[in-house]
Amino acid sequence: MRNIQTFGLLAVILHLGGCAIAPGMHMQDSAGGSTVSVPVLSSDGEYTQEKLNIHEITGELIVEQEALLYPQQTGSASPEQPEYQYHIGPGDVLSIIVWDHPELTIPAGQFRDAKTAGTLVGPDGMIFYPYAGKIDVNGLTVEEIRDALTRKLSHFIENIQLDVRVADYRSQRVYVVGEVNNPGIYPVTDVPMTALEAINRAGGFTLDSDRRQLTLTRQGETYRVDMLALYENGDASRNLLLQHGNVLYVPDRINNKIFVLGEVRNPSSYLMNKGRKTLAEALADAGGVDQNSSNPARVYVIRGSDTPKVFHLNASSPDALILADRFPLFPHDVVYVDTAEVVRWNRVMSQILPTIKILEMASRTDFPLFQGNGN
Description:
375 residues; 18 strands; alpha+beta; palmitate; five-stranded mixed β-sheet; rod-shaped; 24% strand; 4 domains; six-stranded mixed β-sheet; Outer membrane lipoprotein wza fold like; Poly_export; wza like fold; transmembrane
């Protein structure tokens, strides 16, 4: 009976050799790199299975990461950019005024507004005007229409003076959807419809908007628009000029999450403020590392993108937090604080001790487990 008990206890102790049954997650020694193979996007666009190296967080690495996440914005509006002009299209309503000829200007009555009494551009882009007949105005500016009418009416009216304006903009529109206060359809007018103008017309961003990840869909292609770079860095190149049929989508910031796990006081997911958060801020949001169970020398950032990476910070000394305060996180990064070895051992023992006590109690009684043929 004693031999059976001794053999059982010895087997349990040997089984603990590598703490393989310790509860919870555990990172391998950073010098050994990653232990699992992950899909990595190669230069030829194909995914391959690779084991990742673990990169130490240093000052040089921080400079590299900041350049990726917050590139220097040097773009500006080009002074050679042509002046914006609105081009007439089908559905627009024109107000044509011929001075000293009220019979041409207000034939339907002076009490009707310009939108009602104006000249409608037909689906074929044509307008009809007395004495001038039909004129193709599709794609023309108001100045070009004025010149065309002046040439035609000058045959009938001496020293003609006329003006052309757009009474109602109907032919062109853009769509602003997503996290804006007033999503909807907005007409393109003689005021340039830039991305910033469209957002302002839609009532501005909501509190849940992601201002870094706007998307502009144009002619079957989608472009990313970083409006925060325009607001904070003055990068006017981000203020794209919208065109008829464009869709400007403002996403919510629900995807701008990072995850803090392991030996912290409040492990959870946390939203990034305007798409920004440092490693130190993430740890602070989670209540800091647990002083009783964590191993500050083993803080990791796991980044699962097309080119996954794992970063390691040795935060055992307070001055290492200077690096943590400068290390930028990306959306969906996972911050993991490893467990102290002594805590892992204690957790293992807390699982094993009840079994040992049962075996000890059984050895002091005639428990059937140790009854046999006397061998």
